[in-house]
Design a protein that fits this description.
Helix content: 40-55%
Strand order of the largest sheet: 5-6-7
Structural class: mainly alpha
Distance between the termini: 31 Å
Strand content: 5-15%
Number of helices: 18
Oligomer: single chain
Largest sheet: 3 strands, antiparallel
Shape: globular
Length: 514
């Protein structure tokens, strides 16, 4: 599936008991400010494949924690219902056009702003749903209304030889709502309606925070990256409209709104749940490829496992199927396979709840230690969720950084358009010291901060060098090294994450992106 970087144990060559494994790397759906696109499938409705769906697996997934709350505490029905009932977005949303492509003066601004203005029901649904406990997008096409199915806004749970394969068609609807929210924020700010602009914008952030609690890894990664992108857009709006904003609004955003998109959150996102739904999917697939005696069913094993990794080309499927059939002859029985699957998730669960950067976190995982032959089906059906661990901290950077940035803006306006010499001057009145927290600092310290004054500082970014004035706020990124904020990557994978000022807005102003 797209959106995940992982190693799948697909057999490259089989010679007796000798196996050569091929690394399959797919592009992560990181929202890249430099291109103005998140990794998104086209917004056109994804047509379900001819293969049947697995209703039993859908029912199992629909029995998970997010679906145990009452209907009134779920937001999916109201939010997606409003989008489906609205007029169609006039521009195709996809890799080349998403929320980060929307701002006054962009090529499609007239169309998009007219569309958002004509569909206030979407914004009303966001505001009405922001206090729900969960998003709770159900699984299976039968679990959603017919109008949603026609719009492609559903999750398909594969059956037959496609058992366990998931298709998240509703992701396109989420991207479209992001386009709407962004357009409304800019449009309302241009009209001087700043309170209304951020009312809709913050409501969308809260709904995305609910979406982060979906139980499958691909959904969780998509939601965390979508929320990170939306927060970066909020900083764009703050920068673009800074001189006309009200200090009281900025203080409310900094102290009360951004830090608590979910009321029980803190600066470390400790209440964010680990994606455990994939274990149930993998277990269902395992049970579907073993016989009643608990031995691999050679034909079924080969058909289902090759469908997981063989692609759509029949020739590839044939070759992969032959190799998986040979693997089945060496694979462990069902009970040990299910036990290994549980061991892997128990290990991940412990790591998810243990403080980062402890010796335990650096020890080999059950996933990495699993025998690549005896448990080939297990390790191929699940993905190493290390990316979820990393994106948990990236999301914390975005939330904490946006809250602190709003506080810096409040200080700037209150003190005659001057930035503080040190960040402590903004604490208490304008920003919460607790949320000046960089999760990528192994010592649990604050964000990097520097007042650069009127002398422009040059920042290296994926689209070129951007000149920055005023003040800078940055996270150390995944390498945990403090580079002074002078080398930026959106996910912190190579360099720092510059949170303020917003580089996408500066890159537009300086002609680096159109």
């Amino acid at each position: 599936m797209r959106g995940l970087t992982c190693l799948h144990p697909i057999l490259g060559r089989f010679a007796g008991a000798s196996l050569v494994w091929i690394a399959v790397v797919s592009t992560p759906p990181v929202a890249r400010f430099e291109s103005g696109a998140s990794a998104a499938a086209p917004v056109q409705a994804q047509q379900p494949a001819a293969a049947p769906e697995d209703t039993a697996l859908s029912q199992t997934l629909n029995g998970l924690e997010p679906f145990k709350v009452s209907e009134r505490n779920r937001s999916a029905q109201a939010v997606l219902g409003a989008l489906v009932a609205a007029s169609p977005c006039p521009v195709e949303v996809g890799p080349q056009f998403d929320a980060s492509s929307v701002w006054p003066g962009s090529s499609e601004w007239t169309k998009i702003s007219a569309w958002s203005k004509a569909n206030p029901a979407i914004g009303e649904a966001l505001v009405a749903s922001q206090d729900a406990l969960v998003f709770a997008m159900p699984y299976g096409s039968a679990a959603v209304p017919e109008s949603w199915r026609k719009a492609g806004a559903f999750t398909r749970v594969g059956g037959g030889d496609s058992l366990g394969q998931m298709s998240f068609g509703y992701f396109n609807a989420i991207r479209a709502i992001g386009v709407y929210s962004t357009a409304e924020m800019y449009r309302q700010c241009a009209a001087g309606q700043h309170q209304q602009a951020f009312k809709v914008g913050v409501a969308w952030l809260r709904v995305l925070r609910q979406l982060v609690e979906q139980p499958l890894l691909e959904e969780k990664l998509f939601a965390m990256q979508s929320l990170s992108q939306a927060l970066s857009i909020h900083r764009d709006v703050l920068w673009t409209n800074l001189d006309s904003l009200d200090v009281t609004l900025l203080k409310r955003l900094s102290l009360d709104e951004y830090p608590f998109l979910k009321p029980t959150d803190n600066q470390k996102l400790r209440r964010l749940a680990m994606p455990e739904g994939d274990r149930l999917v993998a277990e269902a697939v395992l049970k579907g490829v073993f016989s009643e005696r608990g031995k691999p069913d050679l034909d079924r094993f080969a058909a289902v496992m090759s469908a997981q990794h063989g692609g759509d080309r029949k020739l590839d499927r044939f070759g992969t199927s032959r190799l998986w059939r040979q693997v089945a002859e060496l694979h462990s029985d069902l009970d040990p396979s299910v036990d290994k699957l549980q061991d892997i998730y128990d290990d991940w669960w412990r790591r998810w709840n243990v403080r980062p950067y402890t010796p335990f976190q650096s020890a080999p995982t059950e996933f990495s230690r699993a025998n690549p032959v005896r448990y080939a089906a297990v390790t191929s059906l699940i993905r190493d969720i290390q990316r979820a661990f990393t994106w948990r901290w990236v999301l914390a950077v975005q939330i904490n950084g946006t809250a602190t940035s709003a506080g810096l803006c409040g200080y700037y306006l209150e003190f005659r358009k001057s930035w503080p010499r040190d960040i402590e001057r903004a604490y208490a009145v304008f920003a919460n010291k607790r949320f000046d927290f960089d999760p990528f600092d192994k010592k649990g310290g604050h964000f990097g901060f520097r007042n650069v004054g009127a002398s422009a500082e040059t920042i290296d970014t994926p689209v070129g060098r951007v000149k920055v004035k005023g003040c800078m706020l940055w996270s150390r990124g995944a390498d945990h090294e403090d580079g002074g904020g002078t080398n930026h990557t959106d996910d912190g994978s190579a360099g720092d994450i510059l949170v303020w000022p917003p580089l996408r807005a500066l890159a537009r102003e300086q002609g680096l992106i159109q």
